[in-house]
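Session log. Operator J.P. requested a structure for one protein chain; no other inputs attached. Running the standard single-chain path with token output.
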Amino acid sequence: MINKFKPKSEFSKNVLTLMTGTTVAQAIPIAISPILTRLYSPEDFGVYALFISLATIFGSVANARYELAIMLPKQEESAINIVALGLLINIALSLVLSILIWLFHGPLVRLLNNKEISVWLYFIPVVVFFMGIWNLLTYYNNRKKEYKDIAKATVIKAVITAVVQLLLGFLKQGSVGLISGQMLSQLFANRQLAQNIYRDKRLLAKVSKLKIIAVAKRYRDFPKFSMPSVFIYTLSQNATNIIIAHLYSSATLGFFTLVQRVLGMPSSLIGGSIGQVFFQEATQEKQRSGKAIKSFRVTLKRLTLIGFPIFLLLFFTVEDIFAIVFGQKWRVAGSYAQILIPLFFIRFINTPVSSMNIVYERNRDGLYIYLLQLITLLLVAAIAFLFSLDAKGFFILFAILFSLLYLALLYYYYQLALGRYEEGHKS
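Structure written below.
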């Protein structure tokens, strides 16, 4: 009987293995959130969020995106030299970041308008380096089909983060606990993935200067095209935290961080799965008829029927939920969440159908969308600064402008689904 539920194909087994690791890794921080919010202050979470945002922006391009090429060559020799190339670029970037932070530490602190981040700026290159290593090792293990190790490393990362943050939280170490948990978890997770490389001494011996130069030239399109795109995307996703910290305070950013985690749960737990199914259905429909409008409408209806009751209920109860679940001091975050709920609902129905770009091979349009998001955010920041808006005013404006942007994007995806745009702009 049990065998009926076991995945039969290798593909299904690999997907299930990775999904299990990812699900467990996502469940752990959610489960301990009510404890962490009682051990750490909103200011601690704000410093932590700002630190992670700064590191993530540079960590996304730490290897100049050469990690994407690891899967491509037929020879293992070429793959290991790509890993070596990425490592060298990662070391160089981390060193340059270290020098820049040492030289411009004072101006950076003033620019961020956050004294608490001062000492942590010196640790950003370390985390950027760890992030770059994680990306390299993940792609290499993916190439080697070491999916169990990838899943194990993902869980290790979540467990170490939780244990360190809880332990140091009970010891009242403030933001030290949150950031230390992040750094130590990356160290142990990378160690887990690195085993499959340093065990193969014969393959490591094939790394050479000439081969590294050869693969750098062969796959130069990745830093040329993918790196700017992913940098702008990561910047657009993380700049909000930097702007909030600059305009307001670490506490405001801490509140916003929790809001993002809670209101983003429906998208991460439900929207992602629906998005994968939509991508498959829309691709097949487009191949048959040149359009994907049926898949689009059905998916949009599903998302609305699922999301509307969830977000409507949250709208009337979210402030009390935050106070009860996370502690009374987080009631302010609940009031911010109420303002942002309409935006998160629109984002919930928008994100799963955003793969319409890929279905119609308009991948380059993704870069323009990231730029639009960044421009919209800068517009919000400029208006908030010029008119001295308080935090609530900022979030109201943020919700309105980004809701309009996502609705415009939804209309664009709808037009794509109708097949009204020619298949140009292919990347």
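Operator note: The chain has two domains: 10-220, 264-417.
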